[in-house]
Each structure stands twice: as C-alpha cells, then as structure tokens.
Amino acid sequence: MQNGGPSQMELFDPKPDLKKYEGKVHGEKVEMFQKGSEGNKLLASPFSFYPRGQCGTEMSEIIPHLCSVADQLCLVRSMHTEHNNHTEALVMFNTGKIFPGRPALGSWISYALGTTNQNLPAYIVLRDPDGYNTSGTLLWQNAWLPAVHRGTEFSTRGAPVLNLQAAQPPPPDVQRDDLQLLAKLNERHRRDYPFESDLEARIHNYELAARMQIAAGDALDLGKESETMRKLYGLDNEITAGYGLRCLMARRLVEAGVRFVQIFPPVKPQFQPWDSHANVKTELEKICAACDQPSAALIKDLKARGLLDSTIVIWSGEFGRLPVSQNGSGRDHNRNAFTTLLAGGGFRAGCVHGATDEVGYRAVEGRVSVPDLHATILHLLGFDHQRVTYLHHGNEETLTDARVTQARVAHELLAI
Amino acid sequence: MGNCFSAPVADSNGQLHWAFQSLRPRPVPNVKNTDWPRTAIDHFILAQLERQNLQPAPHADPLTLLRRASCDLIGLPPSPEESQAFFDDKRPEAYERLLDRLLASPRFGEKWGRHWLDAAGYVDVLGGDNDAGIIKLGRGKWRYRDYVVISFNHDKPFDRFLLEQLAGDELVDWRNAPEFTSSILELLTATTFLRCAADDTDENELNTPDLRHGVLQHTAEIVANNLLALTVNCAKCHDHKYDPIPQRDYYRFEAYFAPAFNPENWVQPTNRNLPDIALPRKADIDRHNQSVDEQIAKAKARREKIEAETKDILFEEKLARLPETIRVEVKTAIRTVAAQRTDAQKELARDHEKTLNPKPEEIAARLSDDQKANIRKVETEIAKLNRSRKTYGIVHGVYDVGTPPRTRILIRGDYLKPGDEVAPGMFRALTQDAAEDGSTNLPAKQGSTSGWRLDLARRLTASGTPAAALVARVQVNRIWQQLFGVGLVETSDNFGVNGARPTHPELLDWLAGEFVHGGWRIKPILRTIMNSAVYRQASSTPDSPHVARAMKIDPGNQWLWHQRLRRLDSEGIRDALLAVCGHLNSAMGGPAIPIQSRPDGSAVINERECTASDASRRSLYLLQRRNYNYSFLAAFDQPVMALNCTRRFSSAVVSQSLTMLNDSFVTSASEKMADRILRMTHGPESSNPRAEVSLSFVLALSRKPAKEEAQWCAALLQRQVQRHLAKGVNAEESHRMALANVCHVVLNTSEFLCIP
Fold first, then answer.
1. Mean pLDDT in chain B?
2. How many distinct helices (H) and strands (E) make up chain A?
3. Under an 8 A CB cutoff, do B713 and A137 touch?
4. Which residue in B has a C-alpha nearest to residue A119's C-alpha?
5. Count of CB pairs separated by less than 8 Å, A with B
6. Beta-strand pair A320-321/A260-263
7. Which residues share a beta bridge with B421?
8. Which pLDDT score, from 0 to 100, does residue B720 have?
9. Which of A35, A170, A209 lies closest to B654 in CB terms?
10. What is the Cα Rg of chain A in Å?
11. β-strands A363-365, A338-343: how paired?
C-alpha cells in the first residue's frame, strides 16, 4: 500500500502537455483539497519518461528498478476513487467504501480462501515499526467478519508477533508441564459443555500458540537468505533496508502459505510517504530511493521462483495528484485519477490500460474504480465478487456491494 | 426522493413492522409445568419451550449463581469473604439479598456505565485517532464517563437520563447563570453524549465542509443506532433499501442537531468546550490571566534589557570569527524578521543563527553581580506571577451555535448538491400520524436555544408513542443481551426490517412495558430478569439423552433451554486478574489513566505518567482510544470505536492464548497471586502445597479444587519446585516460582475466563 498519493505524472503517466503549457492557467478549475492551488496553473514534471522493456511502456527515470520489470507489469492509468482525504481514500482502497467499519480486502480473501498454513495467520500486515498510516488499523480490520480474519501485525523489528514469547521466557520443560496441566483442567471443564465450540477453540489455540512460537520464527528467519538475495532487496543499504526487509519477509510468508500480505512504506522522513505537497522533485527522490528497488526486487524474486503466476502483486496509492502546482512546486490530492501497478496472478503482463486527459487530471478512457479492482482481484482468485457474502445485520454483505457501486470485473486487465 | 410516503411503515405483507408498533398490554401465557416459573418472564419462556417440546435446564448451583450475578452486575468475581458469606447464608432469599448487595455496590455503575458508553461511542480522544503515536485527548471528556457511572449507580430514570444527554443545555439557562451549580454542571456534562463522533476539524486543513457535515451526520447516526437500533447511514445518499426510511427522513432527523453542529457556522471542537464555572466567573479569570500575562511580558522585557548589552557583545565576538566578507550579510539576515528574509538570507540564517546567538549560560557567565541579582529578582517575580494564574476545568458540552440553520437534503449525500429544505422531525416510521410532515411543526424556541433537541428527547420517550416503544424495546433487549449473551432480538443494533425478528416478541414487549411503567428504571428490570428461573438455569449441558434431543431441536439455544456460557469481556478479564491477585485499586472517577503506543505496535499503560496504583485501576478508567487501545484489552475484543458499539463480540483467537501465556501483565499477576497466597497461608517456610493449591482455586474460581484437580496441581507444584531448584534457585524462591506456575495455569483456564 503506497499511502500518501503517489504522483502519476511523475511516475507512470507521462504528460508532455504539462511541459508545453507549464505555468499556464488550466482551462478546467480543478478540485482542491488543501489551499495553495488557487492559481490553477499547470506544473510540468521534473522527470523524463522513456519506453521500457519489450513492451515499451513509458515510465519515469526516477524509478529505474520498477522500469526494469515493466514487462511484468499491468499498468492501470485510469484508476479513480471517491475522496480527496487520505483517511477516507485509504479506507476506500482497502475496504471498498470511504466510511470506516467494513472488512478489509485481505480479511475477505482470508474468509474466502481459508488458510493452508496451520501455524501462521492467513492475513499478515508488515508496516514500518516506526509508525502507522493515517487510517491506522482500519486498513486491515475484520469489522464484522470473524476475528480470525483480521490482519495480524508482524513486526520487522524485535519479536515478529506480540507476546509470541514472554519477556522472561520460562524454561521449555517448565512451560510444557504447565501447558499439560492446563489442558487437563480445560478438558475436565469442557465435559460440562460438550457443545461449546469456543472452549474447544481455546484448547486448540494453546496448542497453536506453542507451534507458532517455532513456526513464526522459522518463516521469518532471514539468516536463511543468501547474500545475493539480501543485496537484491537492498538490505545492504541503509536507505532501502527497512522497506526491503518487509518485501523480503512478504516473499517468505507467501512461500509459507500466507494468503494475503500487506506491506507499508517507510513513515520517515514523511509520515504520509508519497504525499508531495511541497516539492515534488526532492520529496519523490527521497521516497523512490527507499521503495523502488525493494518493490522491483519482490516482483523479480517471485518471478524467479515461479511464484508470480500464483501470486498477485498490487502496488498502489489511495489516490493521485493534481496537474496544477500547489505553492509553486507541489501537487495536491486528486481522487479523479491515479495509476495502479498490478503484476502476476493472471493480470496481463507488459501492458498499459486506460488513459487520463491531456494533463492527467481525470481518468477518461477505460476507467477502473476501486470496487472494480476488488472484483477483478476476487475473480482471479476464483471467486464471483457477488457471491462471496457474509450475513451481517440481516444483509448479505459483499466486499464490492455491486448494487450500489456497480462494481464489475475488469476483463481488459486479464491475461486470458 | 421520498416516494415511499404512501405506505411508509408497512412490510411486504402490508403489516406494520413489529418494531414500529406501539406497546400494548401482553397477557402472561399459561404453562403446563407451573412449578418452574418464578416470574412472569418464565411463563413467556416456558410457554415457548413447551411448544417446542423442550425442557428447561436444572437450576444452577449457588456457586454458579454467585459468580454469574457478580460478573453480570459489577463485572468482578466475588472475593473469598463475599463467597463465604453467601454460602453461609442459609436463610431464604439469600440470592435476592445477593442481588440487592450487588445492585447497591458502587461497582455496579462502573460495569453498566461501560455498556452505555459503548452504545454512545465514548472515547477519551477527540478526532479519528489515526496515528498510533499521537493521542489527541478530548480534555474533560472523562467527566461524562463519571456522569454515566453516577447516573447508573443512582438508577436515574432512563427518560430523564436521555433528556439530560440530548438536551441538558436546553433545560437550564446556563448562559446567564451567575454560578454553575452542581446540577447545571451535571446537565452540561451530560451533553458530551453528542460529542462522541470523531471531529478532526480542529486541524485547520481538515476544517472542510465535508468533514463538518460528517461530524453532524455521524452524531445523528450514532443517536439513531444507539436509541432506535436503526442503521440509517444508507439513507444519507438514497432512500433506505430495506427499511421504511426515505432519504428525507435522514435529513429531518439530522436537522435536530444542526443548530448545535452548524456546518455553515462551524465551531472547531476545542472552541466548543465550556468551562466548568459560570461564564461571568470565567470572564473574570480570563481577564485576571490576561493581566498576569501582560505583567509577565513586561518582566521578561526587563530581563532582556538587562541582558541586551552582554548579548550584543557576545554576538559581535562570535560574528568576528566568521570570514569578513560575509559578516554584514549574515548579521542583516539574522536581524531581519524570518518571514521577510530573502531566499539567500534564509540560507544564511539557517547556517549561522544558532551558532551566533549567545546561549543563556554564555550570557549568564558574563553578567555582573548586580545584573545577576536583578535578574534573580525578575525571575522570582515571574514565578510568583505564574503561580497567581487561575485555572478552570473543561466541560465537553453541546449547545446551539447562533440561529438554527436551514437543513437541506444532500443529493447522493454530496454537500455540494443541496436539494429540498427540510425541518427537524422524527422518522416517519415512528410517528403515529402517517400524514405528518414535520416541516410545518417547528419546535418552540426556548430562550437563547432552539429547543429542537429538547423536542427530540421528549418525542423519544413520550408515553404511548411508537418512538418511545422502540426506545424501550431497544433498551430492555440490550439488558437481556448482557445477561444472556444474545438479545431477544439477536441484532441488537438493527431492529429494522432486515434485522433479526424477536424470538419472544410478547416477552420483549412485556419487559418494555414493565420498564416504562416502572418509571424507566434499570435496576428493577435487572432484578426482575435475574430473579427469573430462566436466568437461574444451569449453563452446563453435560451429555445426556435429554441434552442430545434438545440439541437436535434447538442447537442455537434460541428458546433458552439452558443459560449460555459467556466469555468475560476484555475489561472483565483484566479487572478479574487485578482482583484475584489482590491489587485492584477501586478508586473511582477522574482523568483517564494514560496509555502509550510502543514501536512494536503494542499499547501499554504509561507507567511513567501514573503511579503503580493508578495502573491497577479498573479498565473503565484507562484512556480509551478509537483505534489503538491498550493491547491487552484489544486482544479480548475491546471494540475499535469507528462510530459506536451496541454489541461486543467475543472471539477465541490464538493471540488471546499468547496474551494469557506471555503478557507481562498476566505473568506478573500470577506472581502477585502466589505472594498473596503465601501471605494468607503464612509463607513458604511452613509450606503447605495442598492449602496453597486450594486457595488458588478459591481466589480465581470461588471454589475448592476437586480431588483430582488438587492432585494434579500439587504434583505440578512439586515438579516445578524441583526444576527451579535444579536450575540453582534457592528453596524459598523455587517454591514461590512453582506456586506462581500453578496460579498462572489456573488463570489460563477456560473456567476463569467464562461467566458460568
């Protein structure tokens, strides 16, 4: 989740007209979120675009690593969303609606697919240990789906799971004996309640807890990774190491059978990593330096291991940015157009889908909404988005709520 | 829009939806087994059981009743002394006396206040709470939490309770009051009820029309969901898909709150706060503080004057160390006001200002003794002035801001597309007169306030109306839900057409009728339900032909052929752990105990900013956030408070087992419990493993262990002592650690975690 609103005009969506008419007042008055864009004057991108890979997709010079995997990417330049504030737009991108309280995409996928790994949760979140995002845990909440489908935060610093070990762990033989007594007492208690599935689950959970203490450590033991691998993800470089570690952990978790892994970019120096209100050039240089190489590494690594066919990679912000300048060198939020990168899992590789207007303000060709994207992802996982339902408040709820959102599978994005 | 006016309240069969009907007397049904019922409630339940060919479970034993009633009414397990007193009371009606004692306990308001705070969406923070690292405290919000606790302890009639919370500010002329009496303060505090929706507009960049409309809309939605169990948010954009709630009704209901939350005449949340003293007295204090500030400013100027010369000399000395060519530019740049500097000057100032400006200790070292003495005098004066500053507390209240604004329907919920104007009015599904359109009946103005919320409060509890009937049903259903795990209407937050239908509609209405006719009092309803045979049934369902048959007929137990086993809620678990280890601090009220987020994503009590005994107060008093609650409570399903929560869910996920095994709060509670046991049994030197094991059960489970349990535990105790000894721990400590192992196991049992 590339939160903050990556600028499509700087990264994925070249707009020569911005250069041609730089500084001119744009004909259409754009919708502002903050102050500073009242002049409505077009701002050219400081970066150059070139055709990349066999497919020739034009991408920016500032993301050389992502450019090197252009042939794996399905670039959707015609995304649009419903809100211009980070909080709501992030909630929308992750849950399908702008208001909080609905289950996240990962929760729906955990609910629909179940789990293949009995020792790890099905849905894991890897955020920067230094902080959250502006919508916090709303982006991986189960809401009214059963709690087991909530995203479990694994930390890339210290112990990966909260309370996986005690601060002063008891000797293994002491703990084993304690747990055996506990099992006996709980089984005895359960004789009076043979039909209570919660009691059974609780007994089972103590066994799972003991297994997880070993399995989580195993899955995340990066000591097993080669030097080449560490270099690929940029673990040898202070700037890329944090995000690189999360990308590498994500690959290990996917290998271990985890269904959905959600990765967040670094929150320093900027809490909203991609939120370039002030100086598009220098701010993007910083965040791209941290995120470009690890993002591309994950795609390359999955491809090399033959996992890309069965894994979907989604790289996206919650909205895009405006074609006009904010306070001279920045860009304000734009819900009317943004670009999403998709790779693997049945998405068409090496292609560009859709287009924005001449200045990149509005998606005009082949528009794809967030619910459309969700429907398409579920489709590739083998589900009809209208038939993955959960009864809540007496309503058959779905991720996409197609009756209201008109969500549809975007077949144009699919390989077959 | 609004085209379902023709038949607004009928369901697909042309029937009036059950929840929107007025209350009418419900005759108590006859039953075959006349021995079982203790109360009218039991007649309703048993009649249904007999119809289903089911039998009720046996009466629960005294131990079960004691723990159940204690957890349900005060949220704490009984102490060993309370248990003994109850078991020793062989007179008739010992159980009734137990209920009386628990209902009179100050702990009652803490437990039942918590349920209400959930429903109201109470949190201690102000905004959306989206950054784990930033806690934006709503100052003074805690007064409302205390108001709720006290109201429940006093059994304030619920209609009055609602009136105060919706319109306390409209009940009294506080604007012109010379003093805030405790009753004025109480009425203003009550209105924090309407300040529970997230409001981020105190940040200027978020003070936008859509966020302002959002606060107003969320406030109305929370009230509708809490009091009427309606989920109306879909009607913001279009007529409700299932319920007879046209979009027009959404905006009519919202309009009640518009004079207080006027998006066109918006008051940012911090400016909306009221003082806890009368306005003239606040003005006096503000004037006094302003004059103090002026005197302090003068004193500071005097100090600067004394230092000025020395400061200049030091500055020039430092400047002289720079290359001569840039000295003038640097000096000019620094002397220029920051906002007026050119880009070049900004750069120069950035590079040199810090190093060139003399530091306070450098200045102090150069001053003459006379100058130092003068500065000391000035500083004493400043300190004295600061001490003379007066303060007052904050009430997080609601009141009308200016004249009532017009409310317009927003097309597709978009504030940029206003449609027809509407006047405040009740949902038409709940008004008796189907032709009524509130736009002609504006409520009467009350002095300097619109009186609209007062009108709403009165309509919600006006006897004989469908609105009051729904309010009463929703409340008694929620009470039932707390005592049985599931309400008579399972969807306690949705009484609409798509919600569940009541399993016992006549009982629901009978209870609602009792509630209203008994003066809207909660405690008598609790006593009535808890005295019933259905509440007093056993929850256990050991294998038997009878149980097997009942499981076939009603596996979900909707007909209540046994009481339900329920897990303690998050607060109940933490409070029970504190009580059992003997460290619960039962102090009531006051500002919230601070919590803090750690880099690993967990949140803990901030023990640097509170005392150890504060850290042991009931969970109700811990700072409650919207998204990042104390990890221990979050693990046990303390809700994320997006809006409000009328029904807690109880999951059984692996993180709970990890928490109970490894969280330092639990391991430390186990050790404290072991120490408590050793103190009670006279220490490890005269160790008595049997007595100690027995006491661990009595403390945690209110009972002695069965024979085999005692044997298992004593054997574990012995083995763990040997293991600790083998690792070189001394005998006394080995015993203490081994006993802590046993306590830890007992605290991890399902029995400890459940209300039987």
1. 91
2. 12, 16
3. no
4. B654
5. 192
6. unpaired
7. B408
8. 97
9. A209
10. 23
11. unpaired
What pLDDT is recorded for position B629?
87
Q: Which two tokens stand for residue B428?
A: 């038409």
B330, pLDDT greater than 50: yes
* DSSP-assigned states of every residue in B100-134: HHHHHSHHHHHHHHHHHHHHHT--SBSS----TT-
φ, ψ of residue A364 to 5 degrees: the values are: -120, -30
**What is the DSSP code (8-state) at residue B150?**
H
Chain B interface mutation, best of A128, A192, A333, highest count of B Cβ atoms under 10 Å: A192
Q: Please answer yes or no on whether B627 and A137 come within 8 Å at the CB atom.
A: yes
Cα B423 from Cα B461, distance rounded (Å): 20
Residue A33, token pair as written in the block: 């979120």
Q: How far apart are the C-alpha atoms of B431 and B423, rounded to whole Å?
A: 15
Which chain A residues have a beta carbon less than 8 Å from that of B499? 393-394
Interface of B with A in 161-220 (CB under 8 A): 205-206, 208, 211
Distance CA A138, CA A149 (A): 13
DSSP A145: S
**Element containing residue A353 per DSSP (H, E):** strand A351-353
Q: What is the ipTM of this complex?
A: 0.87
Task: Grade residue A206 by pLDDT with cuts at 50, 70 and 90.
Answer: very high
Compute the residue count for chain B: 756
Residue in the structure block whose two tokens are 């007179």? B91
pLDDT bucket at B439, cuts 50 / 70 / 90: very low
Integer Cα distance of B528 and B38 in angstroms: 10
Kindly state the tokens that stand for B264.
């066109």
The DSSP-derived string for A44-105 is --SS-EEEETTTTEEEETT-HHHHTTGGGEEEEEEEE-S-SSHHHHHHHHHHSSSSS-S--H
Q: Cα–chain-centroid distance for residue A344? A: 15
The pTM of this model reads: 0.82
| Structure-token pair, residue B655 | 């993180």
pLDDT, position B433:
53
DSSP A250-277: HHHHHHTT-SEEEE----SS-SSTT--S
- Give the Cβ contact number of residue B97 at 10 Å: 14
Residues of A in contact with B658 (CB under 8 A): 161-164, 209, 212
Residue B752: helix, strand or coil by DSSP? helix
Beta bridge mates, A390: A397
- At A371 the pLDDT is 98
Question: CA distances (Å), B155 to each of A233, B103, B148, in order?
Answer: 63, 10, 10
**Contact residues, B window 235-294, toward A, CB-based 8 Å cutoff:** 241-242
Kind of pairing between the strands at A73-80 and A351-353: parallel
Distance CA B34, CA B62 (A): 23
Q: How is residue B428 annotated by DSSP?
A: G
d(CA A102, CA A86): 17
Beta bridge partners of A265: none
Phi first, then psi: what are they for A316, rounded to 5°?
A: -160, 150
Q: What is the pLDDT of residue B650?
A: 81
Measured between beta carbons, the chain B residues lying within 8 angstroms of A100 are 642-643
Using CA coordinates, name the residue in chain A closest to B713.
A181
Kindly tell me the sign of the dihedral angle through the C-alpha atoms of B538, B541, B546, B550. positive
Environment class of residue B534 by beta-carbon count within 10 Å: exposed (0-12), middle (13-18) or buried (19+)? buried
Asked if the model's pLDDT at residue B434 lies above 50, the reply is no
List A396's β-bridge partners, or say none: A391
Q: Which of A90, A94, A137, A26 is nearest to A333 (CA)?
A: A90
Q: Chain A: give the shortest CA distance to residue B672, in Å.
A: 16
Nearest in space to B474 (alpha carbons), one of B98, B72, B116, B33: B116
What is the spatial distance between Cα A1 and Cα B84, in angstroms, rounded to a whole number? 58
Query: Does B744 contact A at CB distance below 8 Å?
Result: yes
- Find chain A residues with C-beta within 8 A of B742's C-beta: 181
